[in-house]
Write a structure and sequence with these properties.
It is a single chain. The protein has 196 residues and is of the alpha/beta class. It is built from eight helices and seven strands, in the order ββββααβααααβαβα. The chain has helices spanning 57-61, 69-81, 94-97, 100-110, 116-122, 133-142, 154-162, 182-192; strands spanning 4-14, 17-26, 31-39, 48-54, 86-91, 147-150, 167-171. It has a seven-stranded mixed sheet with strand order 1-2-3-5-4-6-7, with helices on both faces. It starts with a strand and ends with a helix.
């Protein structure tokens, strides 16, 4: 099982509310690129609202309509800002773990008719390479007793539980669909098992 510890914490005032951002180091003392955005006293807390969010440069930063990533992130931030406690784990797993350059290649293939799963497979990747062991280690380092996971992806629940995290239950986090991402959302539902 992976292990990390808190490296640094700082206030993070935002358009969604007041948070704290937490950075981590691994067993060898190397800093992680993954961070937690947190609210409230977490040590020993039960049923902490939690979102595990994989980086999406095109959606989160540039506001792409090809996906629902930014909408889900903003919905999670709003939910946590309204709660006494909450966590968003922001994981550097761009493009379901294939990286930004390969994600752009996958976009190119999607423009000629492949869906997101087919594009990843065509490029020689599994449909989803993400690993949730670091997320589990971050939650252990934060000291939460149990979480309520805000997700539509059952693989995240399995991954966290495999890492020893107590997931009490799941809350759906469904953003409105758009014409530009309707096919993407259908693929997530039909091929990746997301509960939409």
């Amino acid at each position: 099982m992976r292990s990390v510890k808190v490296f640094a914490r700082a206030r993070l005032p935002s358009r969604h509310g007041e948070f704290e951002i937490v950075a981590f180091v691994d067993e060898a003392g190397r800093t992680l690129d993954d961070v937690a955005v947190v609210r409230g006293e977490l040590r020993g807390a039960l049923e902490v609202p939690t979102r595990v969010h994989s980086e999406c440069l095109t959606g989160d930063v540039f506001g792409s309509f090809r996906c629902d990533c930014r909408d889900q992130l903003e919905l999670a931030l709003s939910r946590i800002a309204a709660a006494d406690t909450g966590i968003i784990l922001y994981l550097r797993q761009e493009g379901r773990g294939i990286g930004i350059a390969q994600k752009v290649r996958a976009y190119q293939l999607q423009q000629i008719g492949l869906d997101t799963v087919e594009a990843n497979l065509h490029l020689g990747f599994d449909d989803d390479l993400r690993d949730y062991s670091v997320a589990a280690a971050m939650l252990h380092a934060l000291g939460v007793a149990s979480i309520v996971l805000h997700t539509n992806n059952l693989r995240k629940i399995e991954g966290l539980r495999a890492g020893g995290v107590r997931v009490d239950h799941r809350e759906a986090i469904i953003a409105p669909s758009r014409e530009q991402n309707a096919g993407y959302l259908a693929t997530k539902r039909d091929k990746s098992g997301h509960l939409l």
